[in-house]
Amino acid sequence: MGLYNYSHPPGWLADNWLFRKLFLLRKLYLSKRKFTHYSQFAEDISIVRHFPPGFSGFFVDVGCFHPVKYNNTYRFYRKGWRGINVDIDPIKIEGFDMLRPEDHNVARAVSSEPGELDFWTNGFYSLTVTPAR
Fold first, then answer.
1. CA dist., res. 95 & res. 121, Å (int)
2. What's CA 25's distance to the chain center, in Å?
3. Contacts of 46 (CB under 8 A, 6+ apart)
4. Are 91 and 64 in contact (CB under 8 A)?
5. At what angle do helices 17-29 and 90-99 cross, to 10 degrees?
6. Three-class DSSP category at 87
7. Contact 74, 44 (CB under 8 A)
8. pLDDT tens for each residue of the chain, 133 residues long
9. Cβ neighbours for 127, distance < 8 A, ≥ 6 positions apart
């Protein structure tokens, strides 16, 4: 209701190495997690049932968000699968590098058009990321 948007920290703070590491530690280790399933709507439970026990495969997760919370591939990672995680937000990929170092983690946009693009987000480490127009 005020004039300020507190979703984004100031640029000098968001770019600070210590702030980013402390923020990631809080986000990765102190945020609530569900243990019956890792994906948002239990998709991981439905998908894992299609593979025989002990099966090890490869996955590609585009728009991966968080290495554990709301993640469709974390259950597979725990079962020995390895893959590629892609997200446009570099801080999210830093988290994947910390918690899932055996995966290949890439901070890039995925598009059918070549070149660079600007993107908009409604907060630091947000679920909402969209191309800026």
1. 18
2. 14
3. none
4. no
5. 60
6. strand
7. yes
8. 444 444 667 777 777 888 888 888 888 887 766 578 888 888 999 999 999 989 999 999 999 999 998 899 999 999 999 999 999 988 999 999 999 999 999 999 888 888 888 888 877 788 877 777 6
9. 65, 70
